[in-house]
Amino acid sequence: MKRLRFHELLLLAESEKTARAVQFDSRVTVIKGENDRGKSCLIKSLYIALGAIPKVVHPKWVQLNVALHLYFSVDDIRYSILKSGKQFSLFGTDDKLLGNYSRVTTGLGPALAELFDFHLQLTNASSKEPEQATPAFLFLPFYFDQDSSWVENWGAFERLKQFVNPRKAIAEFHTGIKPNEYYQAKAKKAVAEERRDNLRHDRTVVMRVLEKIEHLMKNAQFDIDIASYQLEIDLILAKCNELRADEDRIKDEMVNLDNRRRLLQQQIHITHEAANELGKDFSFAAEKLDDDVECPICGAHYQNSFAERFNIAADEDQLRIALVDMEQEMDVCVAAIEERKKLAVEVQTRIGEINDLLESRQGEVKLNDLLRSEGKKEVRKVLRSEVDELHLQVGKADLDVEEAARDMKKYTKTKRVKEIKDYYREKMDVYLEKLDVTELDEESYKEVDCIIKESGSDKPRALLAFYFAILKTIEKYSTTTFCPVVIDSARQQEQDTENWTKMLEFMRDNRSSDNQMIVGLVDDLDIPLGGTVIELTDERQLLQADQYSAVAKRFRPFIDASLTD
């Protein structure tokens, strides 16, 4: 069992520049003062800082919007929590920010549940779904406020009715009748049941599809061995491979021919232009130039002889011959391209042959129908395999559900439950006697979730006996965190001095030495409760102006850290 201890609470009111720092003794802290000195506001602030809002908080204290910073430890590991406005910021070792939370139910609550090993699941009144209980339900058995706890047990916090009938679950959880382990097993069971339900749904869907396939195959009225059609299938494969090779070859040939055609067009154009130029040169030499020609630049003389003119004519003839050859090659190329186009059409025709082959019949069965049938068989095979796997997964989920149910049952065995209840009743009997409550009917307190029905000055003492009987049972059987016992103004219903003395001595003598206790009271009758006494003397002035600067300085780095998250 973990133990929670409060170490120090800082309170800061920026609106009026006041503050207070309060340290708590690790054993007992008595907060003493006359009425209207702020005892209850101070005590309630411990829980407000942890997201558990007391049922009654003075309106002026609410309006003051006090920022709170609570230092605490869980099994000697130090933490702190800052509440500023509606935001909670949780800090760990070395003041490292662990998280910011703007909501209690879905944010701070689950975080503190992990920290305090508090795994109580309650049914949400709106959604009807199980949820992690809020921090208020952890502190209920440990906090007895002046406004409601001395009238009815376990009603110190607000919003308890957000869950359906929580009293029984709270009592059974804290006393160990249904401890943490029970609710953890219950959560595992819920997860396994959800997984099993999802698997069952998936299995139903697959089985419906399988049934549809079975129906379609039954209507086909044939179930022929695929081997008998192997020849046709081999032929289809051969044709497909042949067509694929032909397509690739024709495509490559058409690309090469087209490239050759483009090249020939360019060559023909260039050759034609060159032949025309040579023809012009021959006409000019024969008609315009003399037999002796002088260079206009260097003055050299050249012969314009018949031999020279004959060479020009010969070059032109060669080009004309080349043109004829190239034009013939162009014709061959164009013809080859046309031929390849015809081949492409033939390939399409051969593709049609494949379709015809699929439509070929053996008896009254089309090969295409057979292939479709074989596809359905394969789908059916896959679906059956899927159904088999889902059967296995559903079985595993069933085993997980059964294992979790066994764990739940292990922690709720009749013998164990009876032992816990007997222990509680034994303590209750002893404590009622110590507090001189003699008229309370045993039938009214025999169950751990009872409502104490007593009246007059006996009622606060009967409630005190109940609270301590539950605390002793928690300490012995529970596995959650044991929290500080906080008792605010137990002197209710005009307790006389004798009875008040009994109550003070009872609180002192029955507190476990391992537990922290914080007591708020007006008069202790000079009966020492042990530990530290904090006296509040200023009427309606819990926070002090002279503490503002020091406390604000301590707040600042934590507020800055919470803003940088």
Structural commentary:
The protein is α/β, with parallel strands linked by helices. Helices cover 55% and strands 14% of the residues. The chain is built from 13 helices and 17 strands. The chain has helices spanning 39-48, 59-64, 104-116, 135-139, 166-175, 180-220, 230-287, 306-358, 367-410, 414-434, 458-477, 497-509, 548-563; strands at residues 4-13, 18-23, 28-32, 67-74, 77-84, 87-91, 97-101, 121-123, 130-132, 143-144, 292-294, 301-303, 361-362, 365-366, 485-488, 517-521, 532-535. The strands form 5 sheets. It has a 6-stranded antiparallel sheet with strand order 2-1-4-5-6-7, with helices on both faces. The chain has a 5-stranded parallel sheet with strand order 10-15-16-3-17, covered by helices on one side. The protein has a two-stranded antiparallel ribbon with strand order 8-9. A hairpin with a 4-residue loop joins strand 1 (4-13) and strand 2. It is elongated, with a radius of gyration of 49 Å.
